Each structure stands twice: as structure tokens, then as C-alpha cells.
Amino acid sequence: MSSFTKLNLRDDVEDQAPKFGLSPDLEARFARDPLRSEVTGLSYQRLAPGMRMPFGHTHATQEEIYVVLEGAGRAKLDEEIVELEALDALRVAPETMRALEAGPEGLQFVVFGAPRGDRNDAEMAAGWWSD
């Protein structure tokens, strides 16, 4: 195996959102397997203006760091709301329930997660963030 892997997160990583009926308002490209990552997870995600993730989630062991590339929005972390803008980095502990919502300009971000286990350790909660 090569000591590195290079790919483009938009061109080389499949958007998973259409498989779940979430496109075009949500784009979700999970790159850990295409990158052949052994320890770290990585995804590129885009939310259309005003779009709120339709589920919250936690992890059993994986800590995540969200980095806002463009736009602005909010994150709901358990019962707290945190405002986000371009170049903000947000670390979230594994057991914290979380979901993001885009502001009027939309929201583009990358998510780094570690440690990567043998399986997806996410637990999903549909409709968790409601008004």
C-alpha cells in the first residue's frame, strides 16, 4: 500500500445524500474509505440555505472536529446552540448529541473523526432537533 492517498472531496468521493433522499439540500461525501485511512475519518458536507440536518447523532468512541469552510449556521450540542461562521473549528465529544443547521448563505464544512473503529459507531436520532 502507498504511504499516501490524494483525492478531491467533490470529484473523487461519492455523495451519499441521494441514497437517502436528502439531495439536493444536503451533500455528504465520506472520504475515510476512499482515502484508505486507518485511524481518521473525514467527510465533506454541504447544507443548502436554511437546511437543518434531519437527524442528530452521537458516537460510541469517535471524537469529531467540524471546520466551517464557507457560510454560517448553528450547531445544537445536547441542549446548547452554538453559532458557527467561516473557519470556526468545533470539537464534539463522542457522547454529545449533535446536528447542524445552515444560515441564509448555506453551510459547507469538513468533519474529522478519530479514532476510526472497525465499524460505524454512530447512533442516529431522526428528527432530534425540532422547534
Describe the structure.
The protein has no helices and eight strands. The protein has strands spanning 26-30, 41-47, 55-59, 63-77, 80-85, 89-92, 98-114, 122-126. It has a single domain, classed as Jelly Rolls, CATH 2.60.120.10.
Features:
131 residues; mainly beta; Jelly Rolls; six-stranded antiparallel beta sheet; two-stranded antiparallel sheet; globular
Tally of individual helices: 0
By CATH, the architecture is named Sandwich
Percent in strands:
over 45%
Terminal Cα span:
48 Å
What CATH calls the topology is Jelly Rolls
**Would you report the number of β strands?**
8
SSE ordering: EEEEEEEE
Given helix and strand content, the structural type is mainly beta
CATH H-level superfamily title: Jelly Rolls
For the report, how would you describe the main beta sheet? 6 strands, antiparallel
Give the SSE map.
Layout: E1 26-30, E2 41-47, E3 55-59, E4 63-77, E5 80-85, E6 89-92, E7 98-114, E8 122-126
Antiparallel strand pairs: 1-2, 2-7, 3-8, 4-5, 4-6, 4-7
Q: Summary?
A:
With 131 residues, this protein is mostly beta strands. The protein has strands at 26-30, 41-47, 55-59, 63-77, 80-85, 89-92, 98-114, 122-126. Strands 1, 2, 4, 5, 6 and 7 form a 6-stranded antiparallel β-sheet that branches. The protein has a two-stranded antiparallel sheet with strand order 3-8.
